[in-house]
Amino acid sequence: MRIVVIGGGLAGLASAARLAKAGHQVVLVEASPTLGGALGAVSEDGYTWDGSATSTLVPAALRDLFRKSGRPLEAELGGELEPLEVITEHRFEDRTSVRVPGGSRAAQIAAFDELGPGLGEEWVRHVDTYAPVWEVLRKHYVEAPWDPRDVPKDLHSLFTTRETLHKRLRRDFRDDRLGLVAGHRTVAEGHDLRNVPAWVGVSNYLEQSFGAWTIPGGMARLVELLTARLETRGVTVLTGTAARDLVVRNGRVAAVSVETGEIDVDAVVVAVDPRRLPALAPVVERTMPALPPVVAHVGLVGDVPDLPAEVVFHSDPLIIIRTGGTAPDGGTAWTVHGRGKLAEDILDALARHRIDIREQVVTRVDLSPRELVERWNGSPCGVLWQGKNTVRWRLGPTTPIEGVYAAGAHAAPGAGVPFVAQSAALVAQAIGPAK
């Protein structure tokens, strides 16, 4: 089959690699002059920052991608993925804080007990409730293509529950700080917990069970490795080529319209926000993107506080520091995110939390949510949760148009590096090997 993949972010790269390995003739079109999308790096004056994600949960998703399309990930990296001892440090308005470790139930009990006696057990009781949730999601949604018209009983029960994450956290925690920790990942992606199904809180179970992992040299290494993989597999890559629309004839996709004409296809993988393609826009008209945060990539000189990979300041605005960038000798590269009522410069807001780096900034790249979405042709935060039915409005791996498939943060099984990588696996399963 001749397949066109639209979008050169993680989902597009992973889809193209898997489909080419399966024997298909693959063409990847990317509107930007470079590949990578939100996974690409941002560089300025010798400083480099990850564009979006700085770590991943469930590393098996990336390992499976590389193993199923060629050499194992660790062989390509020349080393192992690096586990984070502390995934996130949470600082609260009462000046208390907790450092949450990953991959260990006992370590999390100890960490939360330092926040207050008995809070460790309270935390793990909540997290434990998600073990069966993950099994249902893994079996029927994350690792196998799903059909919204034919849903297994246990997945149907999960997806139709009316309980929101907001209600679950209020029910499970007597201490509001634990609720802030449990909901922070979803809030950081731009969602209102009152509109999010309770099962989405499974991310805390994934942190505890599998930990969080970084790529030596930054997440953009994945872009380099997958780009090389596409070359090895004979994928035709057309950068600077925007897909204008899908050409549909008799209910089936026949071509992809680009500026220079049409590319005839047997199938298409849409790895960008499907609302950007007029043929798909009516299908997803009820969805909205979950917008990225305000972002400031800062290059610093001099002594700065010794912080873990991520620090969250629970306030309004919500502020997040990510410390994993690379810098010249004597420098430090941080990324600062902001959400909420940001009526001042984000570094001024950060200074009120007793971290004042304003005099140490030597270079800075500020990006608004709109600029990020335009740069990436979609939001890495995926589809905004608007209630339990949102999961059915999200496309993927199949779509109502025959021959059109969907991958990426806007598709099933959702946003986040492991799920975006897995969306490509679902598409490859749905299409099958070349005949």
UniProtKB/TrEMBL annotation:
GO molecular function, one term: oxidoreductase activity
Pfam families xrefs: Amino_oxidase
Domain Amine oxidase: 10-278
SUPFAM superfamilies listed in its UniProt record: FAD/NAD(P)-binding domain (SSF51905)
Taxonomic superkingdom: Bacteria
InterPro entries, sorted: Amino_oxidase, FAD/NAD-bd_sf
Name assigned to this protein: NAD(P)/FAD-dependent oxidoreductase
Native source species: Nocardioides immobilis
